[in-house]
Prior knowledge:
The structure holds 2 protein chains of 2 kinds.
Chain A: E1 3-12, E2 15-25, E3 30-34, H1 41-48, E4 56-61, E5 64-65, H2 74-78, E6 81-84, H3 96-105, H4 111-124, H5 140-152, E7 158-162, H6 170-185, E8 189-194, H7 197-203, E9 205-211, E10 214-221
Parallel strand pairs in A: 3-8, 3-9, 6-7, 7-8
Antiparallel strand pairs in A: 1-2, 1-4, 4-5, 9-10
Helix pairs in contact in A: 3-4, 3-5, 4-5, 5-6
Chain B: H1 2-18, H2 20-57, E1 60-64, H3 71-82, E2 89-93, H4 95-109, E3 125-129, H5 133-149, E4 153-157, H6 160-202, H7 204-212, H8 217-253, H9 255-264, H10 275-305
Antiparallel strand pairs in B: 1-3, 1-4, 2-3
Helix pairs in contact in B: 1-8, 2-6, 2-8, 6-8, 6-10, 8-9, 8-10
Amino acid sequence: MALSFKNVSMLYGSVYAIKDITFDIDEGEFVFLVGPSGAGKTTILKLLFRQDKPTSGVIEFFGLDVNRIRNGGLPFFRREIGFVYQDFKLLQKRTVYENIALALEVTNRSNAFIKDAVASVLDMVELKDKNNSFPYQLSGGEKQRVAIARAMANSPRLLIADEPTGNLDPGMQWDIIQLLNKINNYGTTVLMATHASDVVDSMQKRVIALNGGMIIRDSKGGYEV
Amino acid sequence: MIIQLNRIIKRSFLIFGRNIKMSIASGVVVGLSFIILTTFIGVIFFASEVLNYVESQSQIIVFLNPATYSMSDVSAFENSIQALNIKSTMTFTSQSSAYESFLKFLNKENPGLSQSVDETKLPPSITIKTDNIDNLTLIADKVYTIQGSTDYIDKVLYYRNIENLLKQFIDTVRLVAIIFASLLILISFLIISISISIAFDSQKEEIEIMRLVGSTSFFINSSYILSGGYSGIFGGVFANSLIFIAYYSFKYFYKSQYNNIMSYLSGIPLYNFSILNQVEIACVELFTGFLIATICSIVAIQFSKK
Lengths: 225, 306
């Protein structure tokens, strides 16, 4: 089991962002997390990445109780997860290479290893020729590819994508989805939160649908049942 | 570990460079603090050396009345002083010994004058010395008491006021130095802290991304702390360069004044202002600057996190 949520609730003030959520994701699965704004998608991703702690319930990541990880252990836990954001979160004053290398520099990797690893992930996202470009010189789709490359640099066991196609035009959306699918085919578990119904429909993968902080559907198929 | 350390140092230089204006401003304030501190320490040191010298040279000279004193009075006087149980040396100089010494002095300085002075013009005396100024003051009090109750003491020579004045001066300078030093350290502390906070806040996005990709707090914070430390080192270099330039400029461009001061101070054993000592002071200041700035950075980062 790659991931497991057991009766997880998160209370912000007096409002439940998610309530009594339970689901499991197996290793190698590709899962869409769908639902309207405020349904609780981002809350689930934040809890999984330990940006927040749940009010109640247990979250397990490959058998590890995420809530019990001490602050000192968080960076090492996060290296096991790649996170892709809607707004890319790239450093504007750093080149594509430097942005990706950053994820490896914070670990204890040698420069030679970093060079090889960056080349490898840039090859995977088909941006080898953009090595020395700055983010402002890239299109939206290319920026997202760089963000995915950075997320994959540490060879994570799980890739989380929070609305990765939200800022992209339809053509580019499809490229990014194909890329995530490729990563999933290599064996990395992918959990993607999205609004893009056409993408979900075309992929026909497992869908966890949320509404009002609760799971209303968990099955394979399109955006709507 | 070495790879990480290397990256932390590299990153700290990058942060220092990105924040160069504030870093230099912080460094200059640290440097000015050092200059003022060094000046005060110098004044205290110099005044203390002068006081030590004055103390070592200080003595009480008791001039006896040639008409009324006797050797038994000298013995009685010495016994009274010894009864105080203070370590001291007393030297009795008779009229003839005083005359001999005086003649030697005159023949050396002005041979013509020696014929105008005879033995009876110079009074016999007892010279009292101690190794401690406070003890000498106690002895002086006793001497004045003896003078009041006997008639064989003509005059007592003791410059109590100069020493007291010097002591008061040193105490005052010390107090002013402590106040100034505290104020300057506080100002340096604030400026470095603000500078590091600004750097930290302006790079919040980068720090957030670093955390998201799994960077440890140690890796992130230590780069900022080190970059703050460089401001302290810069301050130390700045202060030392100014002091060095000022000292050697004075030495070479105002040679006669410099030589005058040095010859005036020739009897007083002062700190040797050599290049080696200058390097010694520079090292202490660089280390202190680095330490102060590093502590400021740690505090600033703790506040920035909140």
